[in-house]
Amino acid sequence: MNFSxxxxxxxxxxxxxxxxxxxVLPQLPLIFSWFLGVDSNWNHIAEHLLPKLLLNTLGLVMxxxxxAGLIGALLAYIMSHYRFPGHxxxxxxxxxxxxxxAYVMAFxxxxxxxxxxxxxxxxxxxxxxxxxxxxxxxxxxxxxxxxMFFPYVYGVLKPNFERTYPEMDIQAAALGAGPWxxxxxxxxxxxxxxxxxxxxLVMMETLADYGTVSIFNTPTLTTAIVSAWQDxxxxxxxxxxxxxxLLVAWAxxxxxxxxxxxxxxxxxxxxxxxxxxxxxxQAWSVFGLVFFIFSISFLxxxxxxxxxxxxxxxxxxxxxxxxxxxxxxxxGLGAMIVILSVALIFELLxxxxxAGRWMQRFSQLTLMGYALPGNVIAIGVLGILIGxxxxxxxxxxxxxxxxxxxxLVLSLRFFILGQGPxxxxxxxxxxxxxxxxxxxxxxxxxxxxxxYLPLLKPGLVASSGLIFLEVMKELPATYILRPFxxxxxxxxxxxxxxxxxxxxxALPALLLVLLGMLALWVSQRRRR
Length: 528
Fold this sequence. Notes:
two-stranded antiparallel ribbon; 23 helices
């Protein structure tokens, strides 16, 4: 059989544009749902609930973005400009909060601050009359999400704070500017785009959060989408609510893209700064501040989970936890393989075609999934699949309730984590190397296995850890699309914590954290 058509430029173009279309396809049912008429419940929601849903959603996005930005920027500055006891291990330990899903931190926090929690109970034992509700208002929720998401800002900003520009520094010093003023006038403005991009990542994560806000009983658009589908059994209402999030996500995505393309290009040569070594009380004061943030964002929650898991009647050897762990591992590995394989094919096709400006611009749409909450993509895919089931008179759930559909949605959601490293890696491979290999008679398969994959391996391994970490933590898409009689550690943890059974939720949550730490180690080990 002749497969030569696959190598033709026309077939390659069809492949690239087909993958771009697949990335955009789940958004179309959300837009076209308004042409099917307004859902019967929409007027009630628009009049009584929608203002509060919008206020909560946008308020949390802004407040958590600012909170995480402040914490991340402070830590990035301290860790890049100073050396003090514990600096070496705190440098990587500050990324560990990424291993804890935000909804896990939420129930740990409530376990401390609820009326029957450790802190209020102890305060009443000491004679204080305290009866506050940690679920009221935004403060507790903003603190939890900021502590979970600040590593996004810290990880992006710290490399920029470690750079100095000697020519600019010399000129500024000659004009009488001291070190602090030079930082604010030179280093910070040049690093600000990275700070802003880190905050945009935090805002996207906050917009996508479902588990934390539902545990805190704070209604947002993400909780309303799940309620519309699972409580009202209305796919149309869920799609119309999801379209509102789509508008917010598009706004964040466009601002993020604008900042990336308009960030200043510094022509001056840079070099790594020489950190100041602190001594005495200054060193221990700075260590105390950094260690305090690390403790409340990772160490103390981890110890609390460990204590609850040991004192509960749950056991690691229970077959239920083996099944949940295997399901979680299978889901993470399946999505990881799909994402990396498609990203590799997609970028290789673009490189072979020498993609022009329009193809490069439209290919950015495949990255839009990261700006969308998982339940928004899930509802869009459900709209397509349920429509196909109705159109062809298929049994309910024949297409829409499948583990492969869940893997597809997760792959669309986190495609950027595979595409970015592959794209950056391919740019490092010079055209001369490729032409030399082709002149020696290397076939496309041989070119991929002998040239591309070995050079891309470090980036692929690092991105595989991040993909597995994010897929394992993802809750809303997994919660909506899970097949019948199937569960994962994320779902089981969330359901128990929602019931207030924090001790029972501790063991599956601890397994999630341990898997997350392993994935984070794989990612950061390869990056170093």
